[in-house]
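Consider the tokenized backbone below.
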């Protein structure tokens, strides 16, 4: 029986990080919690219990955190007194998730009546074991919440298995499936951009919009993640979650309210409206790539097959581009182009909305058309740019494309919290809107699985692209067939 969750209260907080010595905890979670503490966004009676197999006491763990987490905190945000106070919240619990007695020790360390938040920063294969043993140890009550870090499965079957196992002990409203892209300020601003501006909603549809591009490009390679990455690939690592979530926010209908289920209901409708790929579609409308030797960051870098811990002859893709369609009235015949890759020319995440040309060419001096675009830059800059046509100075009617540029970082002087900080605060306060619901996750896998299986059936190697480029030539041809090009 899963417990019935209670509303947010002023309970003391025990946040338990499974994998508390791991890379994610050091680079993201603890710096985010420090920032939340610095700005007074954690309950007064907060403790952070970190688990790991290391033989640390609290002082040794605090020293480890200072060495490995402090470098990820910007100098302007660091305060020695505040840091000392933050370290005072930390407690280390020597722990092996396979050992039931260790859960008893965790129960003794946890406070009776506290709001318990369990962050599972571990391999997904351990989620079932952890949740089962938490329940057996009496550590799951109506106040408990669990945060599941991606990847949530590697296909639909494994995602369902994880959801079933976690759902035995936690109600759906207690489960926070985290996707850090949904914590980005600019991504959350998409909802306001779409539904808070009456000038956009009437034209946010076909035939006014002729294409949508979503790009998440990374300049880095696989680095130390090669062992994990080779069994995952770009489709599972990025497209199935991050890019589909961005697509949902761009494409969804107006929700009836901003309540978590109202928003997630509309995202689910988009996922269920995504056209399923046939084998012929996969061959024609998807491109898999793998980076080879090239230049990144001004230096020579290895190709994927030369990276440590990558098996010889690996066919894992580090790049995916594809053309998707949403079969609804709003988006009929509008292609959605998705692209992601490692070792790309530069780090860049953006959404590009391309509008239709006017129906009659009034300005014959401009045979190339008068394309208008809305460019939403997510990283490294955060900006919204509207490309429009303006007359060039002079006696003729020659036009030139210009930009109306809203730099969000300069427009708002308030501090902009990082994604993990914002999402962790949402977990503490019981806000589910920016977390994936079970049916969302499973609908995303239902769409992605046939593509992954289709690639296996076709048996083609990923196309090579030089590190530091924008991907395989075939990805440019994918758009050129429709008369479009990637926006760089």
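A designed sequence for it:
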């Amino acid at each position: 029986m899963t417990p019935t969750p209670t509303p947010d209260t002023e309970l003391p907080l025990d946040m338990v990080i499974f994998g508390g010595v791991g890379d994610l905890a050091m680079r993201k979670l603890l710096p985010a919690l420090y920032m939340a503490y610095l700005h007074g966004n954690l309950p007064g009676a907060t403790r952070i219990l970190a688990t790991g197999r290391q033989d640390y006491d609290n002082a040794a763990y605090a020293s480890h955190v200072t060495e490995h987490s402090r470098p990820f905190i910007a100098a302007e945000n660091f305060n020695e007194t505040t840091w000392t106070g933050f370290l005072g919240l930390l407690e280390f619990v020597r722990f092996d998730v396979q050992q039931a007695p260790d859960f008893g020790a965790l129960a003794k360390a946890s406070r009776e009546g506290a709001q318990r938040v369990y962050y599972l920063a571990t391999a997904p294969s351990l989620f079932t074991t952890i949740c089962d043993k938490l329940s057996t140890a009496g550590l799951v009550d109506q106040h408990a919440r669990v945060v599941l870090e991606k990847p949530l499965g590697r296909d639909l079957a494994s995602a369902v298995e994880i959801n079933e196992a976690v759902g035995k002990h936690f109600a759906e409203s207690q489960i926070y499936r985290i996707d850090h892209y949904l914590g980005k300020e600019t991504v959350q601003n998409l909802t306001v951009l779409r539904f808070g501006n009456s000038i956009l909603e009437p034209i946010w549809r076909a035939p006014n919009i002729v294409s949508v591009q979503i790009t998440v490009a990374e300049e880095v390679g696989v680095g130390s993640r090669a062992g994990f990455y080779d069994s995952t690939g770009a489709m599972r690592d990025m497209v199935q979650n991050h890019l589909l979530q961005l697509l949902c926010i761009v494409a969804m209908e107006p929700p009836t309210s901003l309540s978590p289920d109202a928003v997630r209901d509309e995202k689910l409708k988009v996922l269920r409206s995504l056209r399923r790929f046939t084998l012929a579609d996969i061959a024609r409308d998807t491109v898999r790539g793998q980076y080879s030797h090239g230049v990144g960051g001004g230096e020579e870098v290895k190709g994927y097959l030369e990276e440590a811990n990558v098996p010889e002859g690996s066919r894992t893709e580090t790049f995916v581009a594809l053309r998707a369609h949403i079969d609804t009235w709003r988006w009929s015949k509008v292609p959605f182009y998705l692209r992601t890759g490692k070792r790309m020319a530069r780090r860049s995440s953006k959404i590009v909305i391309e509008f239709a040309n006017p129906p009659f060419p009034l300005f014959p001096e401009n045979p190339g058309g008068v394309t208008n675009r809305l460019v939403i830059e997510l990283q490294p800059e955060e900006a919204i740019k509207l490309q429009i046509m303006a007359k060039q100075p002079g006696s003729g009617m020659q036009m030139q494309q210009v930009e109306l540029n809203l730099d969000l970082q300069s427009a708002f002087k308030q501090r902009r919290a990082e994604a993990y900080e914002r999402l962790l605060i949402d977990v503490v306060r019981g806000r589910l809107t920016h977390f994936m619901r079970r049916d969302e996750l499973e609908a995303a896998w239902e769409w992605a699985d046939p593509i992954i299986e289709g690639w296996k059936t076709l048996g083609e190697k990923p196309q090579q692209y030089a590190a530091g480029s924008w991907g395989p030539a075939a990805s440019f041809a994918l758009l050129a067939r429709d008369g479009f090009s990637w926006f760089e």
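The mean pLDDT is 91.
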